[in-house]
Design a protein that fits this description.
mainly alpha, 6 helices, Phosphate transport regulator, Put_Phosphate_transp_reg, UPF0111_domain
């Protein structure tokens, strides 16, 4: 493990933690969406949009710090990749909520709640993992579990697609719902990208 004394390096850890905490906020808003009626969804979408903007601000702060730092806690490309992947998660979650509102979806298909539960668990694990970047300790279980969750998300996604194409829905509704479940799947993929980046960093720093 490298021994570091540079004070300004610590700001990266705090910013990554803040970005991950904001993702937890986004996942909770997704959970709220499940139990909300159509009239309440617009307000949830507004809060999700605000969370997504906060995520953008956190990402830009990391990039600004990266561009102005002579010494960084780990490789610059890994800092950029980690920040970008965290930002992608928020973008996908916000897009899913926005689509539900824009398409006036009355009822989400059975299985979407499972997708969102997986994302909520991945968000919690990611937020718990970010502070461990300071020491690079106790991270193995994190990336193993997030990869397992992504595999679970893949299975749920396939079942949802099979359900959507079983003839119950008309063609336009299928297109709308498929776009939503596809975006949620992309969010699960983005969580895996974060975990893979953390693993790459940990291997380099070991």
């Amino acid at each position: 493990m490298r021994f570091r004394l540079t004070p300004r390096e610590t700001s990266f850890y705090d910013m990554f933690a803040a970005s991950a905490d904001n993702i937890v906020t986004g996942s909770k808003l997704l959970m709220e969406l499940l139990g909300a009626d159509a009239s309440a969804r617009a307000e949830i979408a507004e809060r999700m949009r605000a969370a997504e903007h906060a995520g953008d601000d956190a990402t830009h702060a990391i990039f600004h710090q990266l561009n102005s730092s002579f010494i960084t806690p780990f490789d610059r490309e890994d800092i950029y990749s980690l920040a970008s992947s965290l930002d992608d998660i928020m973008d996908f979650m916000e897009e899913a909520v926005d689509l539900v509102v824009l398409y006036n979806i009355e009822e989400l298909p059975k299985g979407v709640e499972q997708q969102i539960e997986v994302l909520a668990r991945a968000a919690e694990l990611t937020a718990e993992a970010m502070p461990h970047l300071r020491t690079m300790e106790n991270l193995t279980e994190y990336w193993i579990e997030v990869n397992r969750l992504e595999n679970q998300a893949d299975q749920i996604h396939r079942k949802l697609l099979a359900h959507l194409f079983n003839g119950k829905y008309d063609a336009i509704e299928v297109l709308k719902l498929k776009q939503i479940v596809d975006v949620l799947e992309e969010a699960a993929d983005a969580f895996e990208h974060v975990a893979n980046t953390v693993e790459t960093i940990a291997v380099k720093e070991s």
